[in-house]
Structure formats: C-alpha cells, structure tokens
Amino acid sequence: MIVSKSSVAIAVIYISVFYNTLLAFVNGNIFSLNNAVVVLCDALCVALALALILFKKSLIGNQWMKILLICLALHLVACLVSLDFNVKFVRDILIIPVFIILGSVYCHLDLKRIVIGISAVVLFMGVWEAVSVESFTSMFNIKSYYINTRGFSEENFWNQDSNLFVSGTRPGDRFVPLFDIHRVSSTFLEPVSLGNFAVFLVIFIPAFWYENNGKGNYFLVFSAIATLALSDGRLAIITSIIFLLLMIFEKGIRPFRVYLLWIIFIPAILLSLALGWNPNVDNFTGRIAKTAYKLSELNIFDLILGNITVAPRLFDSGVLYFVLSQSIISVLIIWGALFSNKNKGDRCFNYYVLGLGLYLAFSMLISYSFLSIKTAALFYFTYGYLLERALRKRYANEQTA
Asked: In 250-314, where does DSSP find H-type helix?
C-alpha cells in the first residue's frame, strides 16, 4: 500500500496537534516518559514537514526557504557569541517557515475539513474533561506528564489536590462564569494552548466561510465559542473580540499591520512603567512588567546578536525570548515577511493575517506559546495555504485576461 504525500501532510498536522495527548496517556497508564521523548516527537513532526517540502515548488516556497537559511545563519552567530547551543531554539526558527511552506505546497487539501475534524476531537475531549475531570485525569495525568517531561516539580503545582496543569485551577473566580468548573485544557493539556486554538478558530472561520458551500460553519462557530469559554483564557477572549471588531476596518488597517507588534508592545511597556505594575506577580500585568524590567537589563549587543544563555529564562516574555534566542534581526525579518505583503493576498487571506498579527502581538507580550507546535502548526500552515492559493488565483486570472 502506497501512502500519498498529501496523506502524510495531513498526518503531520494531526500528529503535531495531538501527540502530547497520546504521550500523556502513555506516561500515565503504560510507562513513565522523559523530556527526550517529547523532543523526539517534536523533531519528528518538523522533520517530516521539512521532508515533504524539499524539492517541491510553490510560489512562496523560495522566499521562505531563503528566510529560513538567513535566520539559521544568524542563529549560528548568536550561538558563537554566547558560546552556547540549545536545540530547541533551532526548532523554534524552523517551525514558522517550514509549516508556511508546507501549507503552500499542499494548498490543494481540504483544510476546512481537516480543521473541523481536529475541532471535533478537541471539543469532545474538552467536554469530557469539564463533565468528569476525575476520569479525564485518570486517563491523562497531566501533572505527572509535565513533571516527567518538562522539568516541573510538585512545588510548581499550587493546587496539590489537582492532577491538572498548574494553571488549570486559578485562584479566584473564572473570567467567564461557566458553571463551577476549572480551566479546561482538552487535548492540549494546558488551558493557554486551548485558548490559542480558540483564537485560531475565530480567525480561521471568516477566511473559510464560503469554502465547501458553507458546510461546517456553524459547527466551527460553536467550537470557537465553546473552547473560548472552556479555556477561560482572558487574552484569547480579548484578542478574539478585538479581531472581530477590527474586521470591519480591515482594508484601512492593512497598511499598518506590519507595525502591530510595536503598536501593542510599546504602549504596554510604557503603561507598565507608568502604573508601576509588579513584575513578581504571575498574571497578565505582572508578565508585562517583568518584560519591561528584563528589557532594562539587556544591552544592545544582546538584542542585536541574541543571548542563548539568557533566553531560556524568559519563557514568560515571548518577545524577549524570541529576540534573545534568535536576534532582533531574525525577528524583524520574519515579522516583516509575514505582514508586509499587503497587496499579495485576497480578502480571505487578509482577514486571516489581521487575526494572526493580533494573536502574535498579544501572545508575545506574556508567553512563547506562539511557538508551541500544538497550535503553531495550524497557524502557519493556514497562512501558507491561504497566501499560495490567493497568488495562484491571481496569476491564473492574469493569464486568462
């Protein structure tokens, strides 16, 4: 039996989203795992994606491959300057270009159907966790999984009576009043990634509303609302609301979306300094304050060349983590390539890019979860998919005109 490359590409997306769920089951029910297994699975997903795009042509493939090579070269310089090396940072720089190219090469796939399938699994697992957390955590012991594979300790989990992720139970009330339940994680095992997936659905739906004659739209809308409510992600909800409001003005915003990161990042830092937010508190304002504090400690060479040694300690500041692990030059190159193509895509692509820009700008303030393959594979595959399809339509129309 010969398996087609398209089937392998679909499998890569599913595996990227769900492999942690499978590993958590194995860790909790068969034998204990360690970090090496997670790193291997993560590397396998990226390696398979890379193998699928080698020697395959697409309209945007060459551009993004050049960007990848430039960023890898800059990362090598950062490693030499820091006299340090971390394989995770190489994977971080691979994930965005590789999955964008993968989406462009396989833009003939029925992506809406794939996302509906993923949403169905996520929703089922989320409802199961919400209704019967005991049976869910007995099957997927999330606390044990993160202790064994991510270097967490028992002391990191403030709620010793729960086997959920550390942020699965939050001191105080839920942001979204939804019965008397915790923050649900579903297949992602931690609520932040479920919130990120919900944002993905929110920005995916307008871009694919007319695909397949609208089939599956209402299920996707329901899934987006349900996952936002279940995850109880403040930032996910705020990002989604802002995106839906700004969609009306998308055409006017389009020339400025390349500046979204700075439009959001700089005022947030200034507001933190003006209001004296506490950097020692682990919440939204605290993480912004910590970013401002850490930023003041860095020198210009750290920003330009990166600092591989310091970067791992900045996981709760996505901007600084990305800059120090890669260099500000790489970050600017990737951001510019993502958001400066205002005249290349169609309406569907531009809706999606506006949402992606808002998601990244807000997410990078407080976390490096935008690089987690669980959701990153979907975000960047969809970007490449939509842009390639829009360009192919444009060139086909120009040739027939």
From this structure: 250-253, 260-275, 284-297, 300-305
Helix, strand, coil shares of the chain, percent, nearest 5, are 75, 0, 25
Contacts of 39 (CB under 8 A, 6+ apart): 87, 88
Query: Where in 272-377 does DSSP place strands (E)?
Result: none
Find the mean pLDDT for residues 255-271. Answer: 91
Per the CB < 8 A criterion, the answer to whether 89 and 322 are in contact is: no
Residues 187-221, buried b or exposed e (16+ Cβ, 10 A)? Answer: bbbbbbbbbbbbbbbbbbbbbbeeeeeeebbeebe
* Model pTM above 0.70: yes
pLDDT bin (cut points 50, 70, 90) of residue 355 is very high
Token pair for 363: 């997410």
Structure token digits, residue 357: 């820009």
Query: How far apart are the C-alpha atoms of 344 and 350, rounded to whole Å?
Result: 9
Q: Measured between alpha carbons, how far is residue 255 from residues 247, 293, 313, 354, 384 in Å?
A: 14, 31, 35, 11, 20
Is residue 58 within 8 Å of residue 385, measured between CB atoms?
A: no
pLDDT tens digits for 85-104?
Answer: 888 999 999 999 999 999 99
Q: What letter would DSSP give residue 255?
A: G
- Looking from the CA of 172 toward its CB, the CA atoms found within 13 Å total 5
Residue 60 in 3-state DSSP?
coil
